Amino acid sequence: MGVRMLRALLAALAAILLVGVLSVLIVESRAVKEGYYAAHAERVRAIETSRDDINAIIQGTQGAFEDGRPVSTATDVAFARLIDNNELLQSAEDGLAENPTVVAELATFNASLATFIRNGQTFSARQGDFAAALRTLQEESPLVVKDLRRFNLRLQSQNTFSLAIDVIEYATGAGGQSAEQLAGRIDSLQQDRDVRARAPGTIDAFTSAAAQVIEQRTAAQQALQAINSSKILETLWSLSNEILDANRRIVSRAEMAGLLLAVCTVLLLLGAGYAMFRLQASYRQLNDSNRQLESSNDSLEERVSERTQELSSAYDDLKESQVQLVQAEKMSSLGELVAGISHEINTPLWYLISNSTVLQERMEQVDEFCQIGENMLNGVKSGGNVKESVSRGLTEMQKMLNDGMKDDIDEAKDLIKDSIEGLEELTELAQSLKDFSRLDRARHGEFNVNDGLDKTLLIAKNKLKNKVSVHKHYGDVPPVQCSPSQINQIFLNLLTNAADAIEESGDVVIRTVVEGENVHVSIADTGSGIPEDLLAKIRDPFFTTKEVGKGTGLGLSIVDQIITSHGGELLIESESGKGTTVTVVLPIEAVDQEQAEADDPDSAANDPEIDDSNTNMAGSKEKTGDVAEVATV
């Protein structure tokens, strides 16, 4: 009797314990509600959008500063979107609000974002003043030069024109003089005695605008440095990792509870089966348990189906993000190219504007000279006092000649010659741009790699000048069958990488040779080189050694795929601290494109846009050969 009661008591305690455990597991398995996954997805999208917006703001402010223009509306929109996404992140009310680490990271990110936005607003204001001053300088320069020439202050007009060009180049970051040197030249022009005596007040607006450009550019540069030095991306990465870890723990806890609940359910069913084996009268309970098991299976299938749909949606979002990233790389490369070409066009245009202004003045004097001659002829035809008319006309002509008209005509000839040279320079640049950027309708055409390299060097001139000495060793190579625009973009990509690898100054050696059925194009530079442990990774997509916001690591991967699609090969040799040699091997005869694309359906050969490289390629390992040309850009 006592043993039986003890067994009953133990069974009751076991039943109570089992019910308690099952209750806890049920509550824990249902801790993650359906709305939690939607809220987490919104947070993840907000973080990804914020990361893209921060990169866009950094690139947009840098581009505005380099171009000397106000900050674009797209950058302002990115700031507004950052604020909205931050409000979404800060309003977390689910399990994340109970995590002290996530709360601390949210507070840190909120403070970093406030500082980042404040720095951005400061830069926008400074950049707006800088752009306005630069625009005023560009409008005032021709007028001041013309007025000084009208007052016969030729030397001062030339100094003013030279100062305007140097200040504008300094504003775009391409000038060779410092702010102190330019300020000294502005002060010297203001203190010029001849200008103050013969043309007082003429240069006041010009010198004020030039001083404002120097002052406001310095202020804008300081604000830009504050933006670029921000650690907000690192803070965002830390916040993202903490949110993902917290989500992983919450979901794992619920899933573990569900698994334990299933285990307990199985154990309970096993116990019931054992009891039913022992007690033949419990068939009804067994049937009820079977129905419960079927219901659990149906519910499990529905949950698996829902989870599969969520994973499919997340995968689609990931592919869309990848497409957007590649597009952002393309737009960044295009913006850098346009900025360089814009600078190369501006200088000849300024020469043409100034020369045209001076020529207009000289033509007025020539017109006056011709009018005197016409008056003399009219006097002779009228039959009046011919001697007096001719004498007066010759006296006036002699006076104009003594006043320097002959020198003015010689100067006009020189200006016309300079203008023709400037137009020829613009024509050559426009033709190079046309040849470089054309879209190939056919997959292949004949292409001379030497001509392509020359056109690419002309386009990249602004990137290379004052920094890189280019040495060209061109061999007598035959035309190759390829996609010309893609190969041109490969050359631009590799030359840009070589220039980036050279910190202050260095050399880039370009060599073309024929070896068998292939043409070899090697580009070597004397930069910092690539560490040996990174050589095996530089072709991988998204691998980059550049700073955050200056490259995504897609460039060299796509270059490699394009060369492979042409049946060629990309060879890279590098030694850290000495330099890198990149060799492009192209077959002279085109390969079977259909077969190549069938072998590699994901090839990037159909996408001709090449982004910045995924590593700083530098250095040179020179091979034998005679120097065909040395060009210091």
Quick one: how many beta strands? Answer: 8
The amount of beta strand, in percent, is 5-15%
N-end to C-end Cα span: 107 Å
| Poorly predicted tracts of residues | 601-633
Report the mean per-residue pLDDT as an integer: 76
String of helices and strands: HHHHHHHHHHHEHHEEHEEHEEHE
Strand order of the largest sheet: 6-7-5-4-2-8
Overview of this protein structure:
The protein has helices at residues 2-29, 34-67, 73-90, 100-150, 154-171, 179-190, 193-198, 204-228, 232-278, 283-382, 386-437, 449-459, 461-464, 484-501, 555-565, 593-599, and strands at residues 445-447, 468-474, 480-482, 506-515, 518-525, 569-575, 579-587, 629-632. The protein is α+β, with helices and mostly antiparallel strands. The strands form two sheets. Strands 6-7-5-4-2-8 form a six-stranded mixed beta sheet. It has a two-stranded antiparallel sheet with strand order 1-3. Helix 12 packs across helix 14 (484-501). The chain is elongated, with a radius of gyration of 38 Å. The relative contact order is 0.07.
